[in-house]
Amino acid sequence: GGSTTTPTSSGAPAAGGATGEFNGALTAVVNPSDKKGGILKLANAGDWDSLDPGDTYYGYSWNFIRLYGRSLVMFKSAPGKTGNELTPDLAEGLGTPSDDAKTWTYKLKAGVKFEDGTPVTSKDVKYGVERSFDKEVFPDGYTYFNDFLNWPKDYKGAYKSPDANTDSAIETPDDQTIVFHLKQPLSNFDYFAQLPATIPVPKAKDTGAKYKEHVIATGPYKFDKNEIGKGFTLVRNDQWDPATDPNRKALPDGYDVATNVNADDIDNRVLAGDLDVDVTGTGVQPAALGRILPDPAVKAGTDNPTGTRLWYTSINGNVPPLDNLECRKAVEYAADKTALQTAWGGEFAGGQIATSLLPPSIPGHEDFNTWVPGADNKGDVTKAKEALTACGQPNGFETNISYRAERPKEKAAAEALQQSLGRVGIKLTLKPFPQTDYFALYAGKPGYAKDNKLGLAMNGWQSDWPDGFGFLQQIVDSRVIRETGGSSNVSVRDPEVDKLIDQAMEQTDPNSRNGIWTQIDKKVMDDAYILPNVWAKALLVRSKNATNVFVNDAYGMYDYLGMGVK
Amino acid sequence: MSEPLLSVEGLEKHFPVTKGLLQRQVAAVKAVDGISFDVVKGETLGLVGESGCGKTTTGRLITRLIEPTGGKIRFEGNDITHMSQGRMRPLRRDVQMIFQDPYSSLNPRHTVGAIVGAPFRIQGIKTEHGTKKAVQDILELVGLNPEHYNRYPHEFSGGQRQRIGIARTLALKPKLIIADEPVSALDVSIQAQVVNLLEDLQSELDLTYLVIAHDLSVVRHISDRVAVMYLGKIVELADRKSLYESPMHPYTNALLSAVPIPDPKGRAQRERIRLQGDVPSPLNPPPACRFHTRCWKAQEICKTIEPPLETLATGHQVACHFPENAPATPEPAATTA
Amino acid sequence: MVTYIIRRLIWSVVMLSIVSIITFAIFFLVPRLAGATSEDMAARYVGRTASAEQVKVAAEKLGFNDPLIVQYGRFAKGIVAGADYDYGPGVERCPAPCFGYSFLTRLPVWPDLLDRLPVTISLALGAAVIWVIAGVATGVLSALKRGSFFDRAAMSIALAGVSMPIFFTGMVSLVLFSYGLKITVAGGTYTPFLTNPATWAYDLLLPWITLAFLYAAGYARLTRAGMLETMNEDYIRTARAKGLRERTVVVKHGLRGALTPILTIFGLDLGLLLGGAVLTESTYSLPGIGKYAIDAIGRQDLPQVMGVTLVAAFFVVVANLVVDLLYAVVDPRVRLV
Amino acid sequence: MSFLELKDLQVHFPTDDGLVKSVDGLSFALERGKTLGIVGESGSGKSVTSLGILGLHKGGRAKLGGEIWLDGEELVGASAEHVRTLRGKKMAMIFQDPLSAMHPFYTVGSQIIEAYRIHNDVSKKVARKHAIDMLGRVGIPQPDRRVDSYPHEFSGGMRQRAMIAMALSCDPELLIADEPTTALDVTVQAQILDLMRDLQRDFNAALIIITHDLGVVAELADDILVMYGGKCIEYGTAEDIFERPEHPYTWGLLGSMPRLDRDRTERLLPIKGSPPSLINVPAGCAFHPRCTFEDRTGGKASTEVPQLVETEGGHLVRCHLPRDTRRSIWETEIKPSLEAS
Amino acid sequence: MTAPLDVPGSDFEATPEAVLAGQGDIKAIQGRSLGQIAWMRLKRDKVALAGGLVVIFLILVAIFAPLIAGAFGQDPTQFNSDLIDPTTLVPKGGTGIGADHLFGVEPVNGRDIFSRVVYGARISLLIAFLATLLSVVIGTLLGVTAGYFGGIVDSIISKAMDVFLAFPILVFAIALAGVVPDSAFGLTGDTLRVSLLIFIIGFFSWPYIGRIIRGQTLSLREREFVDAARSLGARGPYIIFREMLPNLIAPILIYATLLIPTNVIFEASLSFLGVGVRPPTPTWGGMLADAVRFYTVPHFLFFPGMAIFITVLAFNLFGDGLRDALDPKAR
Ligand SMILES: Nc1ncnc2c1ncn2[C@@H]1O[C@H](COP(=O)(O)OP(=O)(O)OP(=O)(O)O)[C@@H](O)[C@H]1O
Ligand SMILES: Nc1ncnc2c1ncn2[C@@H]1O[C@H](COP(=O)(O)OP(=O)(O)OP(=O)(O)O)[C@@H](O)[C@H]1O
Ligand SMILES: [Mg+2]
Ligand SMILES: [Mg+2]
After folding, report:
1. Is C240 on the interface with D (CB under 8 A)?
2. Transmembrane region positions (chain E) (predicted)?
3. Which of A50, A330, C79, E100 is 20 to 30 A from C325 (CA-CA)?
4. Which tens digits make up the pLDDT trace of A239-258?
5. In chain B, which residues have their Cβ closer than 8 Å to the Cβ of E229?
């Protein structure tokens, strides 16, 4: 059974702990400093999905976007659990609910300006949300506002319905006030208000899909050069007024970001101090593990936070014989979870063996293990065989497992499953698909998955924010499944689960609410629609040159707002 | 004279010069430009001329390896000028060709047996004691060891290879053999062996030869009659004796006097005619008499009117406005009327 | 000459059209043969939340319902005249030459390619300089010292060189020189030449050397073979008979003759490399055309794949054209008419 | 000592199949202003000899032996560099196939200029002037224009003229022409032979002309050397060789040749068999397997290598047949049959 | 009767007047075909012979992969997680090399590298051989056709070769391999992938052979023995198959041998880029792609890399030797 302990540095106070030790930045600031100046050098082995606040959906991007964009509310820039707390940013305070939490009102601070000097008004915030509605222009983004605000019927977003009256969804009674109207009560809308979509966008400067090439800054930094595919630089935004902004220290003079850099090289350079941060915050490459873990001195310069990400395998009940619970159970039992853990990167770089959905750091997490894969976590062949017999497939069956071709870890995990399920006669064929189309065309398209017998699909989900809703809703609610493809929930179809989700959303009492999320977690596991693999962990390397380094729990990686350069 | 075995009339071959993807014709090489002659059964007709004058092309036209662009070829009275390859097939037994290069004319991947036996196979002929026996007989005939049947060409010397080539032409007992420079690639000593062989075979098998060569001595040695070509035309055609002893065309004259004589005594007193320059390109031959650019006797008429090939003495035809050694002088102008 | 160039240019355009038609057909037909509908194809462009209705509209707008020829026609027209892409929120202008518009990145392909081009050109040309110098020099020395220790060592290394895939040598060199000795960058970085020539060269050093090693090995072998052949030519003997110094004989007479066939291969190699040094760029994560191609293929971005294929083909065609023209300069016997 | 003297020259090539004795003990002498003709069948070692004199085997696989004296200098033992400086200046060569013997990528002029400038320290302009002069002297029309043509733009005859111009550009004292006319038509061959004769008179060089055409040597040569299997088998004045040949091989050559000046209806008298392999030269007299008169040597032919002996007045023959026998065979058997017509 | 490369049957004694070097007193040389002569030359070329032996060895390895891997009790897809350090993912003790695992084990899953390399030979050689065969067949057919018929046929085929050579073949191959779905043309799984790779590689390499064959055919057509056959009344097919093809066998053989290593690299490149045969089927290129992430475990990079290197080298050595033997003037 997986223990839930969040790795923390055991006891040792980090006050003034300039040297740092393993996991030192999880709970304290390493290398604290107030020195301004210098350029922080970041690198990304891949590329941003988009720099546009209306379109970006990567955790690291939300972490990073705070440098140039200010949303209504934000996560505190602080180490440890504090990072999970919301604090007003553009708004003067957290949201004020009314109408049974169906209406939320925010007051904007005065004196906030765009990089060109024009003052930010509530209209700009409203426009930012409205434009993000258009998922044809912004295919990458989340759909929370689309789904929950009370939009007029047939509303198509700022571009296609420019003249629509959207007051039913968002009202701006004056330039400093913005009011959100929801279709249903939502007890913690403040999490919505921290989404990058609430970063104001000046309508006059909006260039639609091209806005990402030059986002108009409200934060302390603005774009200087931006070469898509190669990198960009941020410089100080002289229109940013620190007086309006207690959250940001804005230490460096600028940021130099390179994209599409060799991942191993990033590790080496960060370890060598030539580079300050691997911006994706997903941890080092496997090759670096062997250099870091065995060497205590090197290991001391790293942190190993548990994120809010679950790597899992969807078990598609639409694909026979997996429509039979017993057959799904066989998969759960037969899976060798230690092999999966290794495949995902091992204890440090991969994660902690997961027994349920909700990661330990998310309220509502409870320790339970519905289908124990043997005492050693290497799979329980006997029970799996029993389940197979009960399912009417005593000799096993054949099905396919999909994964994203570009992701070696998913491939390794799929191979590990293929290997361990093979022991009980479940023969898996590996089906790699390009990641861009993985959900839109293949694994996330129910028709395709069914026709092509994608019984299993490698999958991963990171909480959009640290609560049960933010984690579970998008992956277990059967109503988010779209026949046209693109759904992140590809397997869980249980009306009872849907009902429970509705209850949880309305529940204003946090404790009862978290109880319901636990219940949902258990129910899904009982259905055996999901085979949890690991709760992801990342081995992060602190740069020698970076100051003020700490892990922000909300993002599960270093906080880019706080960091400075020596 | 009996009916000629082979009769060629106004034979022409213009090779198109093409360009581009669509192979458009932009010009023509007039390799053979209207030649006429007969070959009588049992005789040897020699065809001489400098490089590029169209000798080989003539030979290939007669064997129908290439399609004539004009004129007529008659073999034993049959018009074979444009006869289809299918109908030619049986006739091919009667006309055979000996090639110049003993190295490229034998397929290096075939044994001697296969090479000499190929005519039987291609023509589908069964022989009494099997092909092998027939081939070995022929090998013997040309002076090769019949036991060489299973050898490959590269194991033989040039002279032996040429014998193999000759053996192949003899397989089908042809009536006419066209020999294109049969000895020019061989050393003198070997050359003589092959020349003798050709002569022996002629008398033994009653063959008729059309021998193409540029070596006037060889031609003098083996031919009964000789035709001299210049730039796709026959300029003079006569029996051996009169051609060598009293050539009429200035070109023939020049050609003969250019040949070095292996006799150091005579070299001082011999008078020579030296031609200037080289043979012009057949792509663009001089108008009218083609020789006028190099002829020391040329006059205005030579540049405007083409002299026809006329019989000036018995069996002596020449195409020249101002022939030498002509017996009685028929006015050249008269013929142009 | 001018007409030759014009003809070649026309043919180049024809060739590129054929390449584009084949590419187009394959990328648009194969998915359909595999059962994809136009909606399936449109689904990738409309975001994650589109309704079936929206997908249908998008498919229509993007012209996926039109016959292949119409779609190709649009594509071809775009190259000449530019194109407008109506992807919903607005019409996106893709100015000529429009090699397609990526609906995934929301960017026209051409500027992207232009952006990547300097990297690939730097990589290819830099490596080419090294490999030509190293390869040819080694080949010449080997040929001259044929059978010597140097020859055998160089040829063994060269054979080993051509026998190693670039991604293997690339990885090994990365591990050794970048990760290990840290004397070179690990790729991924590219500094434009104009920004800082020194950094530019330093960044590309390892890829250059690795790529050049592979090719130099091949060129050394080619040059050696070519030199051995030309050094047997009669004109080399003539040059020696004139009393030329051996070095002059080798370089001025021998090498000059041996280089022509290498020029052809060089043209083809360089053309192919300029069109994307796929393996090198992906091994060293250089943001060039080849990496772009891989990325485009990875996300199945058909317009980008089309664009990059065409640009790559363009380089080969142009390189061939240049080589042919150069040929006429190098070898006076080649006449371009 | 003569201007050029070869003493027991040997050129051997070690090959995979064995040692090729291309030239095996060749000696002769030649004076300025004289012409030596070397005749022999293909592969008898004619070209190898000429390349040996020019020192072009140096640095190659060939093993050289013996001595070559040119104007009092020994060349076989001399350094390659020294021999190089003599090439082109002191001795020059004309090759058989002028098209392949000239570099296709350089103009005719530049190839002559190059040859001239190696040995004469003059400006390009002067050298060019000289090249035009030389082209004019060998009879190329409009030499000032043709100097910039490429070899392929010349006809065969002009190319050979240009080759000659190139060879003569530095006034060499020894000129070797290796089959200078074999690739040419008779009419052009006659022009070239005339030209060479005239030029030799002007330059007073020693000329070696290599050919397998007895007619050509008869036209040009003062002395003739007949080679067989890498050895000299008969040497004498042109008259000696044509009027009083003493070696059966020479008889064979004469008998094999159809003559233009005589109408002969009888069969030619060829030599039987074919030339020997130079790796496995027949024991004894190399010619004995093909010799009609082998039986008259008393069995020595296949066991003993005959010596080159002088019969009279510088006429040398390498034959086991007694001198009288040779004489009588020639007078009674060979000569009549050659002249029968 | 025509024996292009076979052994002639008769062995009677004869003393030819022939001139073959060195035969003067050697008693009987039988008719030796050029093939036999080439073989004699090849036998003397020790390096090429060694290459040939390695090639044969590799082929045997490929054929008997299951037996060889089985002899060590290893399955190429079997995980050996217990041999892996679960934190660093690399084999315990660095490589895992030992009596059981000759080449050590892979990081992460502990699969036996030896058996994977051995099985990798199958895919590699199968694809390389069949793709070469395909391109040789297409190339020879079109090359001979173009060269023999000339004129407009030649123009069209030559231009087609130009077009093919202008294709950025690697980009195109990757794209094509990526675009073809999982089951098509009635094939699925490895069979489909292997066939697809064979097709792509074979289909894009034929112009190289095609050009060579065309050139050779053009020069053969000028040889007089072709005219000789025609003057005997032989038809096109006879000339192509009986007269020309035997002479083309040498270049075909040479270039096929030299094309195989190119195709081995081609296949490895495609697998390296992830569009080859699907995992877990082992391929050398695929292993290298995995090894890239674990460059700190050099043996993982080394063995598949060396497998490619040795295979390609062996073919190249053998091909070079073959060329020298069959076409000695190229030496
Ligand atoms: N297939 C062809 N296409 C174009 N031109 C040709 C062709 N064959 C021959 N010619 C040209 O026709 C002319 C006559 O050629 P032919 O081979 O008949 O001359 P020839 O008298 O046999 O010369 P040689 O003595 O050199 O063999 C030459 O100028 C040659 O270039
Ligand atoms: N570099 C070499 N290596 C080996 N053998 C050689 C070499 N050069 C010449 N030979 C051999 O030496 C012999 C004499 O050759 P050479 O070229 O002197 O003959 P040739 O008398 O000039 O004949 P041709 O009349 O054909 O020119 C030939 O058998 C030839 O094969
Ligand atoms: Mg001819
Ligand atoms: Mg010679």
Report:
1. yes
2. 47-72, 123-149, 161-180, 192-213, 252-277, 297-319
3. C79
4. 999 999 999 989 999 999 98
5. 118, 122
* Res C46: pLDDT: 64
CB A541 within 8 A of CB A557: no
Give the range of the structural domain holding residue E122, as residue numbers without chain letter.
46-326
- Distance between first and last Cα of chain C: 6
- Bridging pattern class, strands C83-86 and B316-318: unpaired
Residue whose CA lies nearest to ligand 2 atom number 4: D13
How do residues A82-125 score in pLDDT, each as one tens digit?
888 899 999 999 999 988 888 999 999 999 999 999 999 999 99
Looking at chain A, the number of H-run helices and the number of E-run strands are 17, 23
pLDDT digits 0-9 by tens, B10-48: 999 998 887 765 667 778 889 999 999 999 999 999 999
Q: Could you tell me the pTM of the whole model?
A: 0.85
For residue E304, whether the previous peptide bond is cis, meaning omega lies within 30 degrees of 0, is no
CB atoms within 10 A of CB D164: 25
From residue A171, how far is each of A73, A114, A333, D340, E218 by CA, in Å? Answer: 18, 21, 52, 131, 83
Rounded-to-integer distance, Cα B168 and Cα B174, Å: 11
Asked if C254 reaches chain D (Cβ–Cβ under 8 Å), the answer is no
Question: Two tokens at C184?
Answer: 């070179």
Look at chain E and report how many structural domains it folds into: 1
Over residues D259-275, mean pLDDT: 77
Helix C68-81 to helix C2-33 angle (10° resolution) is: 140
Residue A372: CB atoms within 10 Å: 14
Domain range summary for chain C, segments of one domain joined by +: 2-98, 110-336
Percent helix, strand, coil in chain C, to 5, is 70, 5, 25
The alpha-carbon gap from C38 to the nearest alpha carbon of chain E, in Å, equals 15
- Return the CATH number of C110-336, one of 1.10.3720.10, 3.30.360.10, 3.40.50.2300, 3.40.50.10330: 1.10.3720.10
- For the beta carbon of residue B20, count every other beta carbon within 10 angstroms: 10
Considering only residues D16 and A177, tell me which one the structure prediction assigns the higher pLDDT. Answer: A177
Chain A residues whose C-beta is within 8 A of a chain C C-beta are 134-140, 143, 146, 157, 159-160, 208-210, 227-230, 258, 260-262, 264-265, 268-269, 272, 405-406, 434-437, 439-441, 445, 482-487
User: Is E124 a domain residue?
Assistant: yes
Give kind and range of the element (H or E) at residue B177: strand B176-180
User: What is the token pair recorded at C333?
Assistant: 């016997």
- With respect to residue E256, please indicate whether it lies within any of the assigned structural domains: yes
Instruction: Say if strands A39-44 and A277-278 run parallel, antiparallel, or are unpaired.
Output: parallel
Which among C46, C55, C187 is the nearest to A265, CB-wise?
Answer: C187
Instruction: Let me know if residue E156 belongs to a domain.
Output: yes
**CA distances, B276 to each of A487, A537, B214 (Å):** 93, 96, 19
Residue E331: per-residue pLDDT: 38
CB-nearest to A260 from C51, C107, C285 is: C285
3-state SS, C245-290, equals CHHHHHHHHHHHHHHHHHHHHHHHHHHHHHCCCHHHHHHCCCCCHH
Output the residue whose Cα is nearest ligand 1's atom 7: B15
Average per-residue pLDDT in chain D? 88
Task: Collect all residues of chain D within an 8 Å Cβ-Cβ radius of residue B245.
Answer: 263
Q: Which residues of E touch D279 (CB under 8 A)?
A: 21-22
Contact of B20 with chain C, judged by CB distance below 8 Å, is answered with yes
Separation CA C153–CA C7 (nearest Å): 46
Nearest to A436 among C49, C186, C299 (CB): C299
Q: What is the pLDDT of residue E313?
A: 92
Q: How far apart are CA C22 and CA C17, in angstroms?
A: 8
Confirm whether E20 is domain-assigned: no
CATH number, residue E216: 1.10.3720.10
